[in-house]
Design goal:
Layout lengths: L1 H16 L7 H10 L3 H29 L2 H25 L6 H31 L2
Helix pairs in contact: 1-5, 2-3, 3-5, 4-5
């Protein structure tokens, strides 16, 4: 019974944590179908992380092309720093002693971090294109 409430709490946490991000319809359907089964939820996160990572790469490359050389270098530095932070932060959230909830937490951390970064880069791209 405790595991059920723990899993249910994780689903609620991730569903509220990810509302602000621009996740795919496929992800929403996958999460709904997964119910509270941890391995299915992790699979949904993995698939959506791949989608969001593709969006991230596209936004990053597109933004780079629109920037002058000096700002390109600053973006590269910012991206490297963000990657280091993301890895450290999500690694911290993966506490193997806590079992399945920790796996969901780390998986959600990675997914949300990538989606948030996409939104940030796309916003910058939008602002940058308005200045030209």
């Amino acid at each position: 019974m405790v595991k059920f409430f723990l899993a249910f709490g994780c689903v609620l946490f991730f569903s509220t944590q990810t509302l602000a991000a621009d996740f795919s319809e496929e992800y929403a359907a996958c999460i709904e179908e997964a119910d509270v089964m941890t391995q299915k939820l992790l699979h949904c996160d993995t698939l959506e992380t791949l989608r969001q990572d593709a969006r991230l790469n596209k936004a990053y490359q597109t933004l780079l092309l629109t920037l002058p050389e000096r700002r390109q270098q600053l973006l590269r530095e910012a991206q490297r720093t963000w990657l280091l932070f993301r890895e450290a932060d999500c690694k911290f959230k993966l506490n193997l002693d806590e079992g399945e909830s920790s796996q969901l937490n780390a998986s959600g951390c990675l997914l949300t971090a990538i989606a948030d970064r996409v939104e940030s880069l796309e916003s910058e791209l939008s602002l940058n294109s308005q200045n030209f």
